[in-house]
Design a protein that fits this description.
Layout (H helix, E strand, L loop, with lengths): L4 H9 L32 E2 L11 H11 L11 H11 L6 E4 L1 H13 L5 E6 L4 H8 L3 E6 L7 H6 L5 E7 L11 H10 L5 E5 L13 H8 L3 E6 L12 E4 L2 H9 L8 H11 L2 H24 L11 E4 L5 H10 L2 E2 L1 E3 L3 E5 L3 H16 L1
Parallel strand pairs: 1-10, 3-4, 3-5, 5-6, 6-7
Antiparallel strand pairs: 2-8, 7-8, 9-12, 11-12
Helix pairs in contact: 2-10, 4-9, 7-8, 11-13
The structure holds pyridoxal-5'-phosphate.
Length: about 375
């Protein structure tokens, strides 16, 4: 008996496989991310390829984590009500607008399941966060990638890509990997001109690192526009990447839909405890953010003096826009213990580390550029 054309096609592709076949859309999704840079054997290396916070958790956060660990025989809440309430108060938004997930990545999955349909078009800048093509392809949607202009979002070109099939626009602000920032007024004008049925996801994973950051522009926009969702995380400024906790703000209809698609108990009780504690420690944590930002600006000047094309960054990383020389430079850096992220053919993304890492980077780049 014939089951389906897709099944036959897939069985062919999977070499006579007779079992259940995955969706055809998944063929365009890479199974592995490119091989990460490797640490040197017997010499110091600096892990600067995942935009992690270089500082370990504060001792009081570690104590809370240890306390919560003593109760992990229990399930966490289906959704973390205390954290939702705390975030709602913190950001002055209704509790029903706050969605949580295991990092922003978890929330992208919720958004995808809740609103994306096969064939929908999704617009985003490129290069931008590497998860965007994955989210798009897994959902069997069509990517409309709009090249950055001078390292920045080309909002006019993005607006020109909107059609009746456009379902969502992803805006990474600051942009990963270039660190460039779209201002609140630029975003406001862009969103105001979009059809109201187009979902705008403003990914503010690095918002706290924007110079003179005073309350994120994405939050202001979400307050005004029902089609705007803003995403934030405890992974970067709060230094809790390993615990997987992030949140989104959306109007109730969308927020409810995202919640319906969330993995129940998807944020662990340890992550909730650490996030709640961290919200009480923002003075200390943001002092670290300030330190990282100062180091970023210092390194940015060094790169400029070395003649490397680097846009000013509002995040915890810098973009070395070296184009076709990226692979060679990346290999040279790796050989010297600088583990940065190669974006092939475009450039290198370098996370700002602690002072020791940054001095090492400065010394290595100075030597390479002099040669
Ligand atoms: C733009 C952007 N969004 C989201 C994430 C992932 O955040 P989370 O750790 O909360 O899943 C990253 C991580 O590198 C990122 O660069």
């Amino acid at each position: 008996m014939r089951v389906s054309t897709e099944r036959d096609e897939q069985a062919g592709i999977h070499g006579g496989w007779e079992g259940p076949v995955p969706r055809a859309a998944l063929q365009t999704v890479p199974l592995y991310v490119p091989k990460p840079p490797q640490p040197r054997v017997g010499a110091e290396s600096h892990r600067l390829f995942l935009n992690e916070n270089p500082y370990p958790p504060l001792p009081s956060v570690i104590a809370v984590i240890a306390g919560a660990a003593a109760e992990i025989n229990r399930y966490p809440e289906i959704a973390p009500t205390q954290l939702v309430a705390r975030l709602a108060k913190h950001l002055d938004v209704p509790e029903c607008h706050v969605v949580t997930g295991p990092g922003i990545m978890g929330i992208y999955q919720q958004i995808s399941q809740a609103v994306l349909r096969p064939g929908d078009e999704i617009i985003y800048a490129w290069p931008s966060f590497e998860a965007y093509p994955i989210v798009t392809n897994v959902a069997d949607c069509v990517a409309r990638e709009v090249p950055l202009l001078g390292g920045r979002h080309d909002l006019a070109a993005m607006a020109a890509q909107v059609t009746t099939r456009t379902r969502a626009v992803f805006i990474c602000n600051p942009n990963n990997p270039t660190g460039t920032v779209v201002s609140g007024s630029e975003l406001e004008a862009f969103v105001a001109d979009l059809p109201k049925t187009v979902l705008v996801v403003i990914d503010e994973a690095y918002a706290e690192f924007i110079p003179d950051h005073r309350g994120p522009s994405g939050v202001d926009l979400y307050r005004k526009h029902q089609n705007v969702v803003v995403l934030r995380t405890f992974s970067k400024a709060y230094g809790l990447a390993g615990l997987r906790v992030g949140y989104g703000l959306a109007h109730e209809l969308l927020a409810d839909a995202f919640r319906k698609c969330a993995v129940p108990c998807g944020v662990s009780s340890i992550a909730v405890a650490a996030a709640l504690k961290s919200l009480t420690l923002e003075d200390e944590l943001f002092e670290r953010v300030r330190k990282i930002s100062l180091e970023r600006d210092r390194l940015w000047k060094v790169l400029g003096v070395l003649g490397i094309d680097t846009p000013p960054s509002g995040a915890n990383f810098l973009w070395l826009g070296v184009g076709s020389a990226a692979a060679t430079l990346s290999a040279q850096l790796e050989a010297e213990g600088v583990m940065a992220r190669l974006i092939s053919g475009h450039g290198i993304r370098l996370t700002v580390g602690n002072e020791r890492s940054n001095s090492h980077v400065e010394q290595v780049l100075t030597t390479i550029m002099a040669a």
